[in-house]
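seq as requested:
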Amino acid sequence: MAVYTVYFTPSLCHFHDANDNVFSSELLSKCMVDDPPQPFPSFVKSGFLQDGTLYLETLLAVPYFYLGIDIGHVSDYTAIAVLEKLETYIGLDKVHYNPAYKTTYTLRHIERFPRGTTYTAIVNHFKSITQTPLLKSKCTFVVDATGAGRPIFDMIRNKVQYCSKHSITITSGSSASHSNDTNNVPKATLITCLQLAIESGNLRIPKSLTHLNLLLNELTNFKAKLRPSGYTTMQAAHGEHDDLLMAVALAVYHGMKF
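struct tokens:
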């Protein structure tokens, strides 16, 4: 069994193993699943208690999608992750007898664009994704607006319809804030949310996912190093990439928060 070192700050908790790996193979095994059913609206039974009488009703469970976008420079990779969020009725809570739901997140699609792909071509591809019947009007873009990401976010906001758009500026701080129409979120907070989603079993990654090996390689080569100052750096190992990982983390963070 892996032994983790746990560090606490006022805003987050993160852990890594003795080799500075943030995502161990043991941890990742918790979220790997055989092919889950394809997402589609389904009817579920719900119930509520009123004046001592239990009433049952039928609700439509509709999945919602978060599209995490990690923007790279023209010479770097840009990546997208499509995350499905579904709340399933599991019964009545034992305190107030209100409907209780379990939230699951399923990674439905990841994609890395070849180096040199123009931003216009990338944004047009995003536009085509949001026009599919499954995602149309049921999705939110979560775009890394750090550095070169801001003008790309503006392109997405102007050209892409049928989808909400939110930007995140990734910082090296320890607390999130909001300014100038964007959310400033520490990288450690994004990674912590991804860790917790995996650890809790709420994140499901299908074994048949296209480009799964690329994602697993990024996850297993992502490092956390505690500096003498007490500050922890989180980044891909030398020569490795983290674009797919960060796209997933952006989607998970927004899905858990909203």
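The longest strand covers residues 78-92.
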